[in-house]
Amino acid sequence: MARFACKSEISYNAMFISRRKDPYFALSHGKASQGKRTRGTELLVPPKLDPKGERGGRRKERVTELIRKEVAGIISREIEISGAIITFTRIEVSVDIQSANIYFLTIPDDRAEEVHKKLKKNIFSIQQALNKRLRMRPVPRIRFLIDKQEQEASKIDEILTRI
Predict the structure, then answer these.
(1) What are the φ/ψ torsions at residue 105 (nearest 5 degrees)?
(2) What is the torsional sign of CA 152, 155, 156, 157?
(3) Contacts of 87 by beta carbon, 8 Å cutoff, 6+ apart
(4) What is the bridge-based pairing of β-strands 41-43 and 36-38?
């Protein structure tokens, strides 16, 4: 005996199949749902954006803090830098978490170039130690840069105090 589907079953199945092809359909279904169901209709909400307008903001923040702690520990234990104090001012991680720029300042300021050369020379060992310590993939490739924004801000502050 053949079973014939009623009209409502056919339209429901067609609607379900067409919704599965919709790229925003996944946003309103599943465990990480951001969408809401209201009277049988779906409210599709795009993924949340971080304050800078980039996706994945919370993970990026956690990776930034983790890199800051681990790199500071690696440098303080394994690399000998005499005559200067290093301060990491900010770390910028790319959206895809493939690379990270680590900005630093030194006290005294005139030793910044010397410290930068030493960090660049030892970047391979720092990266290897970071790869061993972090339990995540991908581990961002790090790059050290001298933070010139802080120096410029202090110069502007000095000029304003003179006025």
Answers:
(1) -125, 155
(2) positive
(3) 104, 105, 106, 107
(4) antiparallel
With the CA atoms of 133, 134, 138 and 141 taken in that order, what torsion angle do they form, in degrees rounded to the nearest 10? -60
Domain match, 22 and 70 both: no
**pLDDT tens, position by position, 46-93:** 445 545 555 556 888 899 999 999 999 999 998 888 888 999 999 999
Question: pTM for the full model?
Answer: 0.61
Domain count for the chain, please give it: 2
Assigned domain for 141 exists:
yes
Instruction: Go through the chain and tell me how many residues it has.
Output: 163
Positive or negative CA dihedral for 17, 22, 23, 27?
negative
Q: What is the pLDDT of residues 15-52, one digit of tens each?
A: 444 444 444 444 444 444 444 444 444 434 444 554 55
Look up the CATH number of the domain holding residue 108. Answer: 3.30.300.20
> From CA 162, how far away is CA 155, in angstroms rounded?
11
Same domain, yes or no: 65 and 136: yes
Query: Are the C-beta atoms of 86 and 106 separated by less than 8 Å?
Result: yes
Q: Find the domain containing 120 and state its range.
A: 57-162
| Claim to verify: residue 98 and residue 155 sit in the same structural domain | yes
